[in-house]
Amino acid sequence: MNHIPTLSEIQEAHERIKPFIHHTPVLTSASINQLAGCEIYFKCENFQKIGAFKARGGMNAVLSLSPEEQEKGITTHSSGNHAQAIALAAIAVGTKAYIVMPSNAPNIKKNGVKALNGEIIECEPTLEARESTVQQVIERTGATFVHPFNNYDVIAGQATATVELIGEVTHLDVIMAPVGGGGLLSGTALATHYLLPNAEVIAGEPEGAADAVLSFQTGKVEKAPYIKTIADGLMTTLGDKTLEIIRKYVKDIIIVSDEEIIAAMKLIWERLKIVIEPSCAVPFAALLKEKERFKGKRVGIILTGGNVDLGKLPF
């Protein structure tokens, strides 16, 4: 797909991936609602296959390729969840996945890729190293590159989480998601724009990877002033495709500190009794930080994933 996905293309993506993904539950907590001063509906993508929403976008992108492209194999670069999504999608179409991962990617995510028969090629933890290593893989294997977020088929797949949420919980005032590369946020914003045009889309971003908020203001892809955050899934910068959609359809991006992320994550573990990773807690942390703004509203939050290294819990 070479254009911003339409509603019918997002709905087609949903039908395409349905046999390969879980329809995840929406959870609520009376005690969290009381504490937050609003009604929150958590869309639990931590229960998705591979433990994260990325199964949706990766699956849609790979299923959308031609049989010839699929046959040569799929490659991508990712610190974790998208890597597992592509490995899972490669199994679905019976091909090979070549996954470039930074050497410092969490072990739980590396092990997840290995368990799905993905071939891991390690590189230095910089975007330049990721991209040049992927290029080498393409030259060596002829594999098709599926970008982790700056790809309209991936964006259409990620949008399906919000399609399900809106289908289940009508009359939401706000829908929230975290932002890293912006694949989920742009998909969330598109689905909301088409299906609930009066609802606002608000993102959460870690202070230690605050590039999207700058890009949102200037209109060009900016780098974060510094990168240091517990939210390891949100360290990438936006792409040109995701930035365009986010500037059109996202209302605001709220920055949160690691302390706020950890407190929100702990609260979800304690009250909802579910496992989520730090990146996943970012939009909830943003809501708690600006409670007044959400007072009395009905808020949907995409809980993005649960692939947390249990040996390194921050609490």
What does this structure look like?
- The chain has helices at 7-17, 30-36, 54-63, 67-71, 81-93, 107-115, 127-141, 152-168, 183-195, 212-218, 240-249, 258-272, 282-289, 291-294, and strands at residues 26-27, 39-44, 74-77, 97-102, 119-123, 144-145, 174-178, 200-206, 252-256, 298-303.
- With 315 residues, it is an alpha/beta fold.
- The strands form two sheets. Strands 1-2-10-7-8-9 form a six-stranded mixed β-sheet, with helices on both faces.
Which helices and strands occur, and which strands form pairs?
Elements: H1 7-17, E1 26-27, H2 30-36, E2 39-44, H3 54-63, H4 67-71, E3 74-77, H5 81-93, E4 97-102, H6 107-115, E5 119-123, H7 127-141, E6 144-145, H8 152-168, E7 174-178, H9 183-195, E8 200-206, H10 212-218, H11 240-249, E9 252-256, H12 258-272, H13 282-289, H14 291-294, E10 298-303
Parallel strand pairs: 2-10, 3-4, 3-6, 4-5, 7-8, 7-10, 8-9
Antiparallel strand pairs: 1-2
